[in-house]
Amino acid sequence: MQDQMSGKQQFIYTAKQMGRRSWSSAKAFAVMGLIFSAAECVVEKARAKHDTTNTVVAGCVTGGAISAKGGIFLVTD
To answer: Which residues lie in coiled coils (predicted)?
Structure first.
């Protein structure tokens, strides 16, 4: 299909494809940010402390939540 397009048409087609992919990445990043922020706030409120442990726990929770959607993969030899 792209072989038959002019240079301008190829540029427009490529820009639209990039826009679609960028929007998808932006949504995924927004979800990660939301999960991380919510987890950090909950942990900070529960511990009643403001330190780096809250950030580490929130990162673990975020990673777990994101990977739970993809399923659990076990590495076996």
So the answer is: none
pTM, full prediction: 0.69
What CA–CA distance (Å, rounded) separates 22 from 29?
10
Indicate the SS3 state at residue 75.
Answer: coil
Position with higher pLDDT, 21 vs 56: 56
3-state percent breakdown (helix, strand, coil) of the chain, nearest 5:
80, 0, 20
SS3 (DSSP) at 72? coil
Residues 6+ away with beta carbon under 8 Å from 1: none
Q: What does the alpha-carbon distance between residue 43 and residue 57 come to, in Å, rounded to a whole number?
A: 8
- CA 46/CA 42 separation, integer angstroms: 6
